[in-house]
Amino acid sequence: MPLVELEEFKASIYWDSKRTVTDAQAQQALDFGEDRFLKRTFRKRLGYWFDPVETTLTLHGTGLPMLRCIYPILRLDSVIVDGVDITDGVTFNGHFMYRSAQLTFGGVPNTDGYVTYGNVVIEGAFGDPSLERGESLPTPDEDDLTPVVPWDVKDCVMRMAWHQLRRERQVAEMIDDRRGAAQTQVADLAGDRQVNDTIAAWTVKEYSSAFDIR
Fold first, then answer.
1. What is the mean pLDDT of residues 13-41?
2. pTM of this structure
3. Are residues 70 and 118 in the same domain?
4. Distance (Å, rounded) from C-alpha 152 to C-alpha 150?
5. CA distances to 14, 69, 104 from 60, in Å
């Protein structure tokens, strides 16, 4: 699901019905705004999606009773270690999965420096755990991970889309018709304080795995 639907954009203050903008052009501008937002806040790279992503991940065991996932966990559907289904015995919080002290994710109990490559396969949903999705996060039996997109995020994406449409129009107006169609150019957003403040507020900081306990 996109951060901003086309109809939301067309109903916003950023939509000028007097200008000739096709739905396709508006959608391209929204795609630009969303992509720019997710990249600049590092949410795309670090897995802090507003709309939870369901996928399968392969991790390396460490011989310890806890294991850090590369993305924050919202729901675990299955956990397979060395070919054995251990889902019922695994709990999670943020990036981390846990087993009881006598069991590990690597096959060798509590051995310093022990690593088993690609022996842990997990299926589940991943995204930003700080967003409220009802009274509690869904369990594997509940599939309703409703996307939560705060209003200031939507506004930021629409504002960047608005800048992009203005940029494309300005470029088109400057180019003489005899030189052919205008080349699409990316909007310069550096001077928009509102956009930059929202980006800063929603940027995810990357820590080393040893300290990132989110």
1. 90
2. 0.77
3. yes
4. 6
5. 47, 9, 12
